[in-house]
């Protein structure tokens, strides 16, 4: 799995029309915290049970129209869930998986807040919020 910072991930998406950005956070995070412009959403895990979706890879495969070689960038809140999701996709045969470092909200700061020093939103990359 490759790892790119948010700016490099955005540049790749702009340069390669076949690349897909997958947001693997929960539906609530995707809708209310916000999400990168153009991101597709398939939750790696979601409430109320928080178990990993056993159909995750199959859902992403449908999203990719069966082409498991297309560049697939994965983003989550901080870059941790996306690594786990990416490893599962690689195990399922996806060959061009790219993790977005620091995710959408970035790492925790000294006050245990996100979004203050890194991540897609902090860097001012295009995003939407419901």
What features would you describe in this structure?
- With 130 residues, the chain is α/β, with parallel strands linked by helices.
- The chain has one domain: Oxidized Rhodanese, domain 1 (3-Layer(aba) Sandwich).
- Helices cover 28% and strands 16% of the residues.
- It has 4 helices and 7 strands; from the N terminus they run E-H-E-H-E-E-H-E-H-E-E.
- The strands form 2 sheets. A 5-stranded parallel beta sheet has the order 1-6-5-2-4.
- It is globular.
- The relative contact order is 0.23.
- The model has no long low-confidence stretch (mean pLDDT 95).
Features:
130 residues, alpha/beta, Oxidized Rhodanese, domain 1, two-stranded antiparallel sheet, 4 helices, 16% strand, globular
Summarize the structure.
This is Rhodanese-like domain-containing protein. The chain is of the alpha/beta class. The chain has helices at 6-15, 27-33, 56-63, 81-91; strands spanning 2-4, 20-23, 35-36, 40-41, 72-75, 97-100, 127-128.
Number of strands: 7
Tally of helical runs: 4
Head-to-tail CA distance between termini: 31 Å
Describe the largest sheet: 5 strands, parallel
Q: Ranges with pLDDT <50 over ≥5 residues?
A: none
Q: Any idea what the radius of gyration is?
A: 14 Å
Helical percentage: 25-40%
Structural class assignment: alpha/beta
Beta-strand content estimate: 15-25%
Number of domains: 1
Order of adjacent strands in the largest pleated sheet: 1-6-5-2-4
What's the CATH architecture name?
Answer: 3-Layer(aba) Sandwich
Domain Rhodanese: 15-116
Pfam families: Rhodanese (PF00581)
Protein name: Rhodanese-like domain-containing protein
Organism: Candidatus Dechloromonas phosphorivorans
């Amino acid at each position: 799995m490759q790892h790119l910072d948010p700016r490099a991930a955005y540049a790749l998406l702009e340069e390669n029309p076949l690349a897909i950005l997958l947001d693997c956070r929960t539906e609530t995070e995707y809708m209310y915290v916000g999400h990168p412009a153009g991101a597709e959403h398939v939750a790696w895990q979601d409430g109320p049970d928080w178990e990993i979706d056993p159909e995750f890879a199959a859902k992403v495969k449908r999203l990719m129209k069966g082409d498991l070689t297309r560049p697939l960038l994965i983003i989550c809140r901080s870059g941790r869930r996306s690594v786990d999701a990416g490893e599962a996709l690689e195990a399922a045969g996806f060959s061009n998986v790219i993790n977005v470092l620091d995710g959408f909200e970035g790492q925790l700061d000294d006050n245990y807040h996100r979004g203050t020093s890194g991540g897609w939103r902090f860097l001012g990359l295009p995003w939407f919020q419901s």
